[in-house]
Each structure stands twice: as C-alpha cells, then as structure tokens.
Amino acid sequence: MKIRKNKQTLLIIAIILLPLSLALELNLSNPMIGYCDEVLTLFMAMYIIMLFLKGKLYRCDSNIVVLLIVFTVYGLLSNIYSGMAYNWNSAFLDAFLQWKIFVGFLVGKYISMKYSDDYVVNSIVKLCKVLLVIGAICGIISLFVDIGMASYSANQRFGIPAYYFVFGNSGRYGIIVACELLFILRKYEGKRVIVYEMLALFNMLLTTKGAVYIIFVFYIVLKFIFKKKNENAKIDFKSMIVLGLAGISALTYQISSYLLDNTAPRALLIKYGFVTAKKYFPFGSGFATYGSSEAAKHYARLYEQYGWSNKWTLGKSNGEALNDNYFATIIGETGYFGLIIFLSAFFSIFKQINAIRCNYKVKAMCMSIFIDLFVCFIATGITKSSIGMMAFLILGMFCGLFNKEKDIGVS
After folding, report:
1. Model-level pTM?
2. Beta bridge partners of 162
3. Domain membership flag for residue 53
C-alpha cells in the first residue's frame, strides 16, 4: 500500500506542479521556475526508457519510443547536414524536449494502469472543484475591474478582456479548465456534474480564444455522438466529418487572423518552416535552429537570413513569437520525413484514447482535449508547453485507468 501511494503521489505532484510552476513563473517573474517541465521530462524519460529496455511496455508504447528514437537520430542528422545549430548542447537539449509530451503520456498511463484505482482522481478532484468556482468568480470581477487576471488590449474580441486567471495565457488556462472538468466527470454524475460543466463553460468563454472554444464545442458534439454507445463509443469517419465542420466554425477567426494572414507571426513561422524544409531537403535545419525555445534563445542564424532581426515579435529584441508554433518547429527542424515520424507517434496516442472504454462524458472530454492539443500543435506553441505536458500526463493517466489490452491492440 505504501509503495502504491508513493508512486501515485508522485503522479499527483507532477500534475499539480506543472500548472503551478507556470503560475509562479509568471507572477514571480522568475524564469528558473519555468524549467520544472524540463526536469520532469528528464525523470520521466529515464523511467520510460527503463521500462522499454526491460520489455515492460506494451507493443503500441514500445513503438512510440522507437519512433522517438528514430525522430531524434533523424533530427541530429539534420544538424550535421545543415550545420546551422548554435552548438551541440542546444541541439541535444532541443531534441530531448521533443520527448516531453510523449513520456508524460506514457508515465501517466503506466502508473495509473498498474494500480487501476481512483486514488489520483480522488486526491485532485476537490482542488479542481475549488479552482473552477474561484476561477468563475474572478472571471466575473475581471469583466468590470482590472485585477491582473485578464488582457485589456485594444483588440478585445466580443468586447471581453481575454481571461487567464493566474496563468498569464488564456489558451493555456482553457486547457487547465478542461482537465479540471475531466477529473470531476470521472468522480460525479447527475445534476452536480451539470453545475461544473456550466462553470467550466463560463471560464472557457471568458478566455475569448477559439482554441479553447473548440474543447467545449467538441465536448458537446461528442457527448451526443457517444451517448448511444456509451462505453463502446469511438470516433469513426462520420464523426470526423461532423467534428471537422464544428472545428472550422469554432476556429474561423483564428484561421483567418493567424494562419491565412501572411503578415501574422504564426503564419510566417509556418510559411518559412516549409521554406526551411525545402532548403535542407530531405532533412531539415536540425534541432535548435528553427521555431524552438533554443533557436529563440540564441536567435538562430536562419532568422537573420530571413530578415527578421528587426521584425515585430520575431526580432532579436522582441522575439516573443519565435517559439509560438509547434508545427513550424517540427517541419522546419526535421523536414517532411521528421514530421511524418512525429505525427505517427502523436496519432498512436489518438488510437489509444479512442479505444478506451469508459463513461461517455469522460471519453468525450478526453478526446476533446486531445483534439485541441492537436489543433494547438498546428496553430500555436501551447502543446509543447508545461500545460501541454500536463494534459498529456492526464490523458495517459485516463488511458491507463481504463486500459484494455484487446482494445488498444497490444499483446
């Protein structure tokens, strides 16, 4: 019992520590706190590699590890081919950070699968309830008074300040809210759940972010799709068409403003990600050379070649957007083949989430969070942040909690 609680307590600490570190980093203006996810990635990677070498991973998860190893080797070959990295330490660090979301998922899965109970859920659910209530109260206040929890920019959407509670970023806060609701859906049913669903919806609406709205839009759609089949529900081709239409409706503003506007920083990152992939075909420019935190830290030589040195949000002195798109990072640094390898590992996780058998509301929220993380992978940098890692850790936990070997194709 003691060992069980010790291991699961580490999982609880990791889940809470990731959003907490973000809040502390932003509110205490201490960048060192922001390395929490990197430290956790190191220990989680060691744990997963140990299981892999001992042959204790299911086949589908061993395949993810193999894909990550191939992806890393391929990316480092890209470094040799291009010669564009600041130094090899940066390249190795950037390569290591690409493991973040995957080892988070696998650690969450194997800890919860081994013990297969609700100890983690029971330990966190009260905190989730409290945060949803406090978040809603502070959100209402922020509509009328600036209490430092929202962005009052000149281009407010719908005339509402973008609410982020204590997390400094509305998109990340939306994912945190979704994860809070996921724990509550696992623990409660009936009218009590409806109350917290409404609280979560209100918190998400206040963010004014389409990438957040898509979570709740998909949650509502998937609830209707999954309800009839309940535990046997899965996303099929027809479901994907419905979700695609719903997603386009929810993301109209983001698609036109961020991805189709050639002057938008994220659109430029993606555009020149393809330029970079073509320039260094068949590889890419290599780790720490384009779109990553290391590339931004050392202001990659490619940025100067592309004439961004004095460009707004992409320049040397104001480059806050340089690390704001995950898709651009992968396509630029590892090229088309690297992107295929990365997406293969990504969609291996999708298959596992799609195969779990549980209450239809829990399944709908798990899938909605995953789809949102994929949307954020294409459109923003949230997926590779500490909150992206937290979400994958939780999704892995729920996959492990409802694990069925025959359902996820393992032997």
Report:
1. 0.92
2. 151
3. yes
Whether 378 and 28 have beta carbons less than 8 Å apart is answered as no
CB 223 within 8 A of CB 360: yes
Angstrom distance (rounded) from CA 297 to CA 88? 14
How far apart are alpha carbons 155 and 384 in whole angstroms?
Answer: 27
Q: Which of 207, 187, 214 is nearest to 367 (CA)?
A: 214
What is the distance, to the nearest Å, from the Cα of residue 88 to the centroid of all Cα atoms in its chain? 27
In 3D, which of 77, 69, 61 has the Cα closest to residue 96? 69
Mean pLDDT, to the nearest integer, of 218-223? 91
Give the contacts of 62 (CB within 8 A, at least 6 positions apart): 52
Q: Which of 312, 310, 285, 313 is nearest to 300 (CA)?
A: 285
For residue 186, the enclosing domain spans: 2-258+324-401
**Of 332, 350, 199, which Cα lies nearest the Cα of 268?**
332
| Within-domain flag for 30 | yes
Q: Tell me if 266 is assigned to some domain.
A: no
Cis bond before residue 282 (omega within 30° of 0): yes
User: Residue 407 pLDDT > 70, yes or no?
Assistant: no
d(CA 395, CA 397): 5
What does 48-87 look like in DSSP terms, one character per residue? Answer: HHHHHHTT-S-HHHHHHHHHHHHHHHHHHHHHHHH---S-
**What's the number of domains the chain is made of?**
1
Distance separating alpha carbons of residues 85 and 63, to the nearest angstrom: 29
Give residue 406's pLDDT.
Answer: 44
The more confidently predicted of residues 319 and 331 is 331
